[in-house]
Amino acid sequence: MYWVSVFTEAGIFAILALGLDVVWGWTGDFDLAFYGYLALGSYMTFVLTIGKPTPPVEYIIGWHLPVLLSIVLAIVVVVGFAAVIGAIALRNLRGIYFAVTTLGAVSAMYLLVENYTPLFDGFNGVYGLVNPGQTALNLTYNGYRIAFGVVVLIVLFLAYLLVQRLSRSPFGRMLRSVREDERAAAAYGRQVFWAKYRSYLFGAALAGLTGGLFAIFVSAFNPSAWTPQELLVIYAAILVGGRGNPRGVILGTFVVYVGFIELTRYLPSPASRPDFGPALRQVLIGLMIILMLRFRPEGVFRERPGVDSEREPARPLPSDAVGALAPAATGGPGVPGVPGVPEGQAADDGGSS
Amino acid sequence: MNTFLVTVGVGLATAAILALSAVAFTLEYAVSRIANFAHGEFLTIGAYVAYSTQGIFHENVAAAAVIAAAAGAAAGLVLNVLVIEQFRGRSAITVLIATLGVALIAENVLTMIYGAANVTYSFAQGNLHHVGPFLWTTSDIEVIISALVVAGLIYLLLQRTRFGKAIRAVSQDRALAQVSGIPARRIIMQTWALAGAVAGFAGFAYAATIGTFGPLLGFNFLLLTITATVAGGLGRPYATLGGALIVGLAIQIAGTYTSSAYELVFAFLLLVLLMLFRPNGVFVRRSSVAVRA
User: Angle at which helices B237-257 and B217-232 pack, to 10 degrees?
Assistant: First the structure.
């Protein structure tokens, strides 16, 4: 049963990673608001299904809708929220400014949820969505969890097919052209903002779906369950798997969640320091992010866009070469520094010019 | 006593700490053209080192400040050499992600050493003083004066010394500075040490003011720092001071008239509004056009 829950969790986060990869991997915008979308999706799923709050607990709405309908509505709300943030952040902000704006927006939302209890009951959070439909399906508790895990993996597979199809479509190729050189894409008549905006909303919809599934998985949700640090784990998973490669992203998520997090569970944690083990795990994740970025930014599986899978698409300057250039450029004094490798050539250089 | 003026006084004390942190952040940006998301950790490290050496220096404020600054400088140097310079020539966003990784590491190393719970670190705040229309504690006054002194020193350093001239040259064009005979790499390292020292000191001042803190002290302060920096204009040290003043006062005033729990909500909404209308800072006219970094 333990492994079922581990794989279910990894499957849920793989869907989130797919959505995040559409935004970061394809269009090159480093977004820090994504965990907020998952949270909002979760909260909405809760308040739409668990019925009226009993004082002193308080939250908005409090309907008794079927869980599937609630998830759909939650996705609509998340996309609406992302539409506002995306409209602000994507309009003319790129690179650092985009990251900072999304972080600012999600932090404001986070603090509001924490402190304004009528919304989602502040720090206490919402709970009470325990195995929806278990009696209707006539399943035991364990049977339900297994069935739920299977459903998650099926949803993941469907999301993968959708993303993969989108990746190969003209739309996917246009997003990549925008990432590689926004001005060139605009010069060829592409609507850069709309392309980015649509992909952003698509990614947010997947995050909302993840939120709904996560709500069923954890059956309780409060602000401490979502912090910017959690999102870094997803980014680490994408980096490991290979940015822009849906199959790689899914595999990376499973490697990070099943392999990494489960293995590090056995790290020693002295009785006097209960925080030691989890903290050490986070340290390792941080190290993994830095080392992947430095030495293999394209991940284990490279991005393989293109029309037909037979022909190997022409790669831009391999990032290994970039890595080799960087130390050379910082040679002894008197050697003129080699100006940075032109933007858009390194594999990790998503659209930031 | 006028509530508004008291609020402004408290806002000035907040702004002073914010100004120190923001100036350091903007210096890092100026020479390396990257947003250092591990900047908050300089503050945290400064605060924890001051806390750890409490037993040695007792209530000596000056000694604690110096040791916090020294720890921050060391952290700045290490980050520059081990991470920032390793990523030279890579896009700014790649370095941003790497520094986020560093922040994660630093936070959790501190958690491993000190535990995740808050530690108590308090100096006597001193008596209340009426200074003009404002009401400040002794430590408020110390913080404000030291911020003014540090700002003045940075001004003199940048404008009147060879080192400052070299910093300005490197921040305009690293390659050109290098061919003009400026040891750019060394200047950048020293700038990071300087920024780290200022941030470490700010961390000590912040921790001493709020009295209790945890490993997330700096990371939580980072976004506020960025808001102040953006309000002034990234990479412009003097304008950053103005930005810190605006943000410090704005959140204090907004917080007083609603609820202090929402102070930071206002700050981050302000950040989003700045990004929407004045991404290059409030002191630059008509700047809502494309910003790339």
Answer: 110
